[in-house]
Amino acid sequence: MRRLLFFLFGLAAFPWIVLAAPRDFKGFVEIIFNLLNSVIPILLSLALLAFFWGVGQFILYSDNEEKRAEGKQILVWGIIGQTFGLFYPNFRPEEIPMAPF
Fold first, then answer.
1. CA-wise closest residue to 50 among 94, 95, 4, 84
2. How many whole angstroms separate alpha carbon 9 and alpha carbon 78?
3. What distance in Å separates the CA atoms of residue 76 and residue 80, rounded to the nearest whole number?
């Protein structure tokens, strides 16, 4: 029964998948950027949460060196995620050079 439902859903979704296919490379890049534009705010909020979680662990476990190092690692990954999330909007698909053919 489960396989039948997946098969029927696949048949029902097939026209939308085919019609959503990009016609050229620029269309493919635009689809990727649209997907990333919808995911970036979620990732940015998770990076901010990770940053504050790392700060909390770094402060709360200041006497335990192992937990403090773990908090520092989470803090660094939170900063890296925020940096990516904040500088990502500067990249646009219009600025990608295309082949002249």
1. 84
2. 38
3. 6
Residue in this structure with the two tokens 């097939």, named with its chain if needed: 14
pTM above 0.90, yes or no: no
SS (H, E, C) 1-51: CHHHHHHHHHHHHHHHHHHCCCCCHHHHHHHHHHHHHHHHHHHHHHHHHHH
Cα gap 98→101, rounded to integer Å: 9
Look up residue 36 and give its two tokens. 């990333």
Q: Where are the domains of the chain?
A: 25-94
Report the Cα 84 to chain-centroid distance in Å: 10
- 101 residues of the chain, pLDDT tens digit each: 778 776 766 666 666 555 666 778 877 777 777 777 788 888 889 999 999 999 999 999 989 999 999 999 999 999 998 888 777 766 665 665 665 55
> Judging by beta carbons within 10 Å of its beta carbon (0-12, 13-18, 19+), is residue 31 exposed, middle or buried?
middle
